[in-house]
Write a structure and sequence with these properties.
957 residues; alpha+beta; seven-stranded mixed sheet
Length: 957
């Protein structure tokens, strides 16, 4: 192939020269060129190397269907973008692009040795070959395969660009600005509907850009749309996903076509909600499957037409057309009329319309009917094609070699139904097209034009793979260019028992690349159909999933990066802790004080001091991050009774209860202490990380399962500051601050709540404890949180009040055996496994997860259960997450029977303590288990989970 510019053709501005580089070599193009068109015009043949075999690859398509020409573009430090399509990269002065998946160079790639060894790498070879020795997979096989395969190199520096996002609403959204899409927009341009017209190309027009006969209409239509006040046109914008309720995600490329971003965003994410959607995405020409069809210079005929008419570039000087569809003939005529020699039209059909043959004869183009290309000569560029005649039975006849420098494939057309499939619209088989088309809509959406099967491109026949005179099992006839999937791989998958087209896809990786099967799915399905002797319309189609084309992480993330990646939530007391030098940690989205060092203390010393203070006198802790939900309504108690495992309807106002929340599968999801304020009002607390999850779950049940209940849920997590006061002196500290509340043990027992005032501020005062000591949780409006905290600190000074952080809180709760959901549970722990049988209402008729608790696997012997562990060496603190075995002398890999969930040094006990989940743990009390660690194995004895004050004497005072 030796491409070149043709005078008088194309829409690119030849008066404006552009300089750029590809793989370090300087090239020239013109304004309006893509990287692909500019390189083609410079005679470049080789654009990349294939994924598995590292075969030389050139262009196949001219747009987003292109499977081969993936490049990386470097726009400066942190602006390295891999896996861009050369067909969509707009050139500008100074553009630096490089090819991918090759070493040391594109011309000479050491990895191409895999092409010669391809017999070792059939479909599914990963699953069959690298099985022994087992340890070699991670140490050798996987790293080697990843080094050899893959696509572009990921960015390794922080992206300095920023990205915008916007929500948009319209009455009509048109996706695709070809003739059909433009007509749809024009139909609404004169009304009062808000219309958004989007297209992925830099210039609006779609297929009309490659048809000079439509240019005048296109210019007139675009002028009308641009002048319409209710129409918004978005070019360089790709609709990548269609979600329910007519919600479409799209990304607009704002700066990649310019040398400098300036101060604006690089890309913009559009979240569009439309009353009605018109899909006008067109159709993609199908490649033909034959030996050597991946040789650089073998491409779609429609792509060659685009290069010719839109960019004024001929893809060769002596082209051959391989057609099974009339549209290929028209491309041959276009090239002949432009002065490009057409070596031959090779037609698979035995006959075509008289007009086609007559035109070919008039243009001096040789025609070869009942024939097929059976091989292509040339390594990095086409030099000739072998053409074989076949009879009606498919038997090979005479063959001849035709000199050419490009082979243009015309195998028919496949409507683009990707977004239609995203929307869950059904599809049906179109026999004449040999493809699926939209059928019944699931959303308020219609497909128009070529993507609906409405085309005027002539007729043809669908052929999954062209016949060959060689053994089909020994030739490389590619179906999926990007994943190096040949026709023989599809056939192998069927022979090995795969019948579902979805399974064939996964076994062979057909259609799983960045092109999402745009050029491969129908051919792959057709080959499988023939192998199974099953009609194509019964095969079905693989599932199309977003995104339609790859999108940058930056566009999806938008402003959510760096400090904005996840907003840091802070309590009203956070600043006080920061001023005192607290060391913080992130818990869910909250910043929490982990410990308060004094005099340069390390964490171990600080937590020991804090723990001693709580046990001996009084400690103060910021618990404001706890999730809080106000549950209100006449059916509030009934609702909670159905949600939680334990009974709630009999709970009296003024009392608290520990609540355990399960998922439907019976596994622990969340817990917390909640209070009944009135017959129709509850104050619920959740774990810090579980607040949103619990509220969402409760709303889901309330709205979908029990809509008849009169209950209202309100998140109040940020409305209340919570100050936990724990220790023997806690009551004494509060005594002088609280109004209208009797703090005596008889009037205010453990697990009670009272409403009154503290420091003149309204409070909900809980008598609860997460330390095992006398405890209170002071809830006050957040605006008063710091003021009340400081007042309590002042009142507690005479008792040596000590602030403590989350690390000490963990130690104190572990000493009492209180669990933390998500740490001592792992998504597979039931209440029975955690020793929380007492929190399950045995007489309740139902609650969320109740039925699952009776499943055989849930009550089977040998389940992992939460137990306590005491190391034989009291000074040895186990590592959290460490695996546990029964027999340390067994062969490797050892059978792991559990893991350590919590482990600390207990200052109160003068030794280490730990909790763990161990298979059959409750039946193994007193037994010794082993914790293998690097260089040693630690012995520990199984026991109960309550290590300190098991009688609860310190709590009930």
């Amino acid at each position: 192939m030796s491409g070149y510019r043709i005078a008088g053709r194309g829409r690119a501005d030849r008066g404006e020269a552009v300089r750029f580089s590809f793989d370090g070599r300087e090239y020239g193009g013109v304004a309006g060129d893509t990287l692909a068109s500019a390189l083609l015009a410079s005679g470049v043949t080789l654009f990349g190397r294939s994924f598995k075999y590292h075969r030389p690859r050139g262009l196949v398509g001219a747009g987003s269907e292109e499977p081969n020409a993936l490049v990386s573009v470097n726009r400066g430090p942190g602006r390295h973008t891999p896996n861009l399509l050369a067909t969509q990269v707009e050139i500008y002065d100074g553009l630096k692009a490089t090819s991918q998946n090759r070493w040391p160079s594109l011309e000479f790639d050491v990895g191409s040795i895999t092409n010669r060894l391809s017999f070792l790498f059939p479909a599914g070879f990963y699953n069959k070959t690298f099985m022994w020795p087992r340890s070699f997979w991670e140490m050798l096989y996987e790293p080697a395969i990843r080094q050899m395969a893959g696509l572009g190199e990921p960015p390794r520096e922080i992206d300095p660009d920023h990205y915008a996002a916007v929500f948009a609403h319209c009455e009509l959204l048109v996706v695709g600005a070809g003739p059909a899409g433009i007509e749809a927009a024009l139909g609404a341009a004169n009304g009062d509907k808000r219309v958004i017209l989007i297209d992925e190309q830099a210039e609006i027009g779609g297929g009309a850009l490659s048809d000079p006969a439509l240019w005048e209409w296109l210019e007139r239509s675009m002028r009308t749309l641009e002048e319409a006040p209710n129409v918004q046109i978005l070019s360089r914008t790709t609709a990548f996903g269609y979600y329910h309720d007519n919600f479409i995600g799209a990304v607009e490329r704002l700066a990649d076509h310019r040398p400098d971003n300036g101060d604006g965003p690089r890309e913009k994410l559009w979240r569009i909600r439309a009353a009605e959607v018109v899909l006008a995405q067109g159709a993609i020409e199908r490649p033909l499957v034959f030996a050597g069809n991946d040789t650089p210079g073998v491409m779609l005929a429609s792509a060659a037409r685009t290069w010719l008419y839109r960019y004024g570039v001929a893809v060769g000087r002596n082209v051959l057309v391989m057609a099974s569809h009339d549209s290929g003939w028209q491309v041959a005529f276009d090239h002949a009329e432009a002065g490009v020699k057409v070596a031959a039209i090779v037609e698979f059909r035995a006959s075509v319309g008289d007009g086609l043959e007559a035109t070919a004869q008039a243009l001096g183009i040789p025609v070869m009917l009942s024939s097929a290309v059976t091989d292509v000569a040339g390594g990095k560029a086409v030099s000739a094609a072998e053409v074989t005649v076949f009879d009606a039975a498919g038997s090979a006849g005479a063959s001849r070699t035709v000199a050419c420098d490009a082979v243009l494939m015309a195998g028919g057309w496949t409507p683009s139904i990707h977004l239609w499939s995203h929307s869950k619209g059904t599809i049906k088989w179109h026999g004449e097209l040999g493809a699926y088309v939209p059928d019944v809509a699931n959303e308020k959406c219609i497909s128009v034009g070529a993507c609906a099967g409405d085309m005027t491109l002539g007729s043809g026949v669908s052929v999954a793979a062209l016949p060959t005179r060689k053994d089909p099992a020994r030739i490389k006839a590619f179906v999926d260019y990007q994943n190096d999937v040949c026709a023989r791989d599809i056939r192998l998958a069927v022979r090995e028992g795969f019948r579902s087209i979805e399974h064939v896809k996964r076994y062979t990786t057909t259609g799983m690349a960045t092109d999402q099967g745009k050029t491969s799915n129908i051919n792959g399905m057709g080959i499988a159909s023939e192998m199974m002797s099953k009609p194509a319309n019964e095969m079905g189609l693989t599932t199309f999933r977003p995104p339609y084309t790859p999108q940058s992480f930056g566009a999806i993330a938008g402003h959510h990066k760096g400090e904005l990646f996840q907003p840091t939530r802070k309590t009203s007391i956070d600043a006080w802790a920061a001023e005192r030098g607290a060391v913080f940690e992130n818990v869910a989205q909250w910043r929490r004080a982990r410990y308060f060092p004094v005099g340069g203390e390390e964490m171990a010393a600080a937590t020991r001091r804090e723990a001693r203070a709580v046990r001996a006198s009084v400690g103060i802790f910021d618990a404001s991050t706890l999730g809080k939900i106000e549950v209100v309504g006449p059916d509030a108690a009934e609702f909670l009774n159905r949600m939680y495992t334990n009974p709630w309807k009999a709970l009296e106002p003024g009392r608290c209860r520990y609540g355990l929340l399960l998922k439907e599968d019976g596994f622990i999801m969340d817990d917390g202490v909640s209070a009944r304020l009135a017959p129709d009002r509850f104050h619920l607390t959740t774990t810090t990380g579980g607040a949103a999850r619990v509220l969402n779950m409760m709303e889901d049940y309330l709205q979908t399962e029990w809509p008849g209940l009169k209950v209202w849920l309100t998140s109040t997590s940020e409305q209340w500051s919570v100050i936990a006061l724990n220790g023997p002196k806690a009551r004494d500290v509060l005594a002088g601050l609280v109004e209208d509340i009797d703090l005596s043990g008889q009037a205010f027992p453990h697990m009670a709540i009272r409403e009154g005032r503290i420091c003149g501020v309204p409070t909900r005062l809980f008598r609860v404890s997460f330390t095992g000591e006398l405890g209170f949780e002071v809830n006050v409006p957040s605006a008063y949180g710091r003021g009340v905290w400081e007042a309590i600190m002042a009142a507690g000074a005479e008792h040596d009040i000590t602030p403590y952080g989350t690390e000490t809180m963990h130690i104190l709760r572990a000493e009492k055996g209180y669990i933390i959901v998500g740490q001592d549970t792992d998504g597979t722990v039931t209440p029975y496994d955690a020793g929380l049988d007492w929190a399950v209402g045995k007489k309740k008729p139902d609650f969320v997860g109740k039925r699952s608790l009776a499943r055989p696997d849930i009550v089977a012997d040998g389940r992992k259960q939460l137990v306590g562990l005491l190391t034989e060496d009291p000074g040895e603190v186990l590592e959290e997450g460490a695996q546990i075995v029964f027999d340390p002398n067994q062969s490797i890999p050892m059978k792991m029977v559990g893991h350590v969930t919590s482990s600390y040094w207990s200052e109160a006990l003068g030794r280490s303590i730990a909790m763990a989940v161990i298979a059959g743990g409750k039946q193994r009390m007193g037994e010794t288990v082993h914790v293998p660690m690097p260089g040693k194995t630690i012995r520990a004895v199984i026991g109960g989970t309550v290590f300190y004050d098991p009688e609860g004497a310190r709590l009930n005072v």
